[in-house]
Amino acid sequence: MAVVGLVLGSHGVYGEVRARVLSEIAHRFDPGESLFLQGESFRIQSSSRMSNDVVVLKLEGIDSPAAAKTLTGHELFAQPEESPDLSEGEYFHYQLIGMQVFTESGEDLGQIREIIITGSNDVYVVSGPNGEVLLPAISQVVLGVDTNKGVMRVRLMEGLR
Questions:
Q1: In sequence order, what are the beta bridge partners of 54?
Q2: C-alpha to C-alpha distance for 133 and 136, rounded to whole angstroms
Q3: Rounded to two decimals, what is the model's pTM?
Q4: How many helices (H) and strands (E) does the chain have?
Q5: β-strand 34-37 against 40-51: which pairing, if any?
Q6: Burial class (CB in 10 A: 0-12, 13-18, 19+), 142
Q7: What element of type H or E holds 66?
Q8: Angle subtended at Cα 25 by Cα 132 and Cα 98, rounded to the nearest 5 degrees
Q9: In contact, 114 and 94? CB cutoff 8 Å
Q10: Do residues 97 and 113 make contact, with C-beta atoms less than 8 angstroms apart?
Q11: For the ranges 4-18, 22-36, 129-143, which has the lowest average pLDDT?
Q12: CB of 54 within 8 A of CB of 21?
């Protein structure tokens, strides 16, 4: 299963949830699509964007604010086979979240905890033993990604620390 979102909390009086979007697939959160939450499949009844990375979802079977609130902090999943093929060097956010990041000299910077979507390029938020580092997702910084091992190798340019 592919992580495509994170429930941030309840929203409204009918059991809607606010969720952080961790997927670049435009139709992933459309009404009629299905997502998995706590091992169960839920069909999306309605969906609206609050921002680029936050969506409000009405999931079938979640009908009260109390029920929605219990889902806070849980990840939303989709079947990986529902994802389109990507070009060489492109990755889905769910493939990068949690990835261990090392500099070219082998220093452990920590794990990618969040991806900030900007107009020009994404920014990886890496949390580690020496605090937080923001890394732009550009070829001058990202030297290599191994999704099988869950490792990214980067070059720290001037001012990134």
A1: 20, 51
A2: 10
A3: 0.58
A4: 2, 12
A5: antiparallel
A6: buried
A7: helix 65-69
A8: 30
A9: no
A10: yes
A11: 22-36
A12: yes
What b-and-e string marks burial along 39-77, b requiring 16 or more CB atoms within 10 Å of the CB? Answer: eeebebbebeeeeebebbbbbeebeebeebeebeeebbb
User: How does pLDDT run across 44-102, given as a tens digit for each residue?
Assistant: 999 998 887 899 999 999 999 999 999 999 999 887 655 566 677 778 777 888 999 99
Length, in residues, of the chain = 161
Task: Answer for the pair 127, 113: CB distance below 8 angstroms, yes or no.
Answer: yes
The pair of three-digit structure tokens given for residue 13, joined into one six-digit string: 């009086």
Residue 15 CA to residue 33 CA, distance in Å, equals 18
Q: Which residue has the tokens 């609130």?
A: 69
